[in-house]
Write a structure and sequence with these properties.
Helix 1 (2-25) runs parallel beside helix 8 (160-186). The chain is 62% helix and 0% strand. The chain is globular and about 60 Å long. The chain has helices at residues 2-25, 35-53, 58-61, 67-70, 89-111, 113-122, 128-148, 160-186, 218-223.
């Protein structure tokens, strides 16, 4: 499920990049020209992450791992993030990535309006509830790893801590897919073309032409 979420996120960010680029071409002024580039990089990066999670379809298509690659891979698979040379490094980078873009950015945008306006020009800003789900997923995983990594409390032929790690990664992928979908729903061509007035602001009222002097008829003058 985590892989599906990453693929969904990649597709949604790709569509959002195209929509934002079209809006800029139509004269959008509320976003930076860098935003579609950022969205495009996110689409490519998350597609790579999804492909890595399934070892680029190795098990799906029944592809054997060459012996030269098997010797350099911690799990003997056709992927990059399990290579001995970078084993663990890419996972750490990915954690910093989602913690920054999907936890720190949404919270900063929700708590400080100037930050929301600046960040929204360059980055996709997910709803703050996404940050809450990611924090909860991380805390549950950390708790589970501490409990089941203690041999005095739990022993198994296949350490359950590995399953907890896989569940944590699946949770992150699902939440990122939801976040990207919500960002895509917010991204449309029309709102980017101009900012509507706030509810507290009143739209300017056209000035009415001044009336000339009132003329009094003879009959009305005679009655006086």
């Amino acid at each position: 499920m985590g892989t599906v979420g990453l693929f969904v996120a990649s597709i949604c960010f790709g569509i959002a990049a195209v929509r934002t680029r079209r809006a800029l071409g139509a004269g959008a002024s509320t976003v930076s020209a860098w935003k579609p580039v950022v969205l495009g990089v996110l689409a490519v990066g998350l597609f790579f992450a999804a492909g890595e999670e399934i070892s680029w379809g190795q098990r799906i298509f029944g592809v054997d791992t060459p012996e030269s690659v098997r010797a350099e891979n911690a799990q003997g698979e056709l992927n990059v993030h399990n290579l001995w040379a970078v084993n663990g490094a890419l996972d750490t980078i990915f954690q910093f990535f989602w913690a920054g873009l999907f936890v720190a950015v949404p919270l900063a945008a929700a708590l400080w309006r100037p930050a929301r306006e600046v960040l929204g020009r360059y980055l996709p800003v997910a709803p703050p509830v996404i940050a809450g789900f990611l924090i909860l997923n991380y805390l549950l995983a950390q708790t589970g790893e501490r409990v089941f990594d203690d041999e005095d409390l739990y022993t198994s032929k296949y350490p359950l801590v590995h399953s907890i790690t896989e569940l944590k990664e699946a949770g992150v992928g699902i939440v990122l897919g939801i976040a990207a979908f919500l960002v895509l729903r917010r991204t449309s061509d029309e709102p980017l073309l101009g900012r509507p007035p706030d509810r507290g602001e009143r739209e300017p009222v056209e000035a009415r032409p001044e009336r000339g002097p009132i003329r009094v008829g003879r009959r009305a003058a005679g009655r006086r």
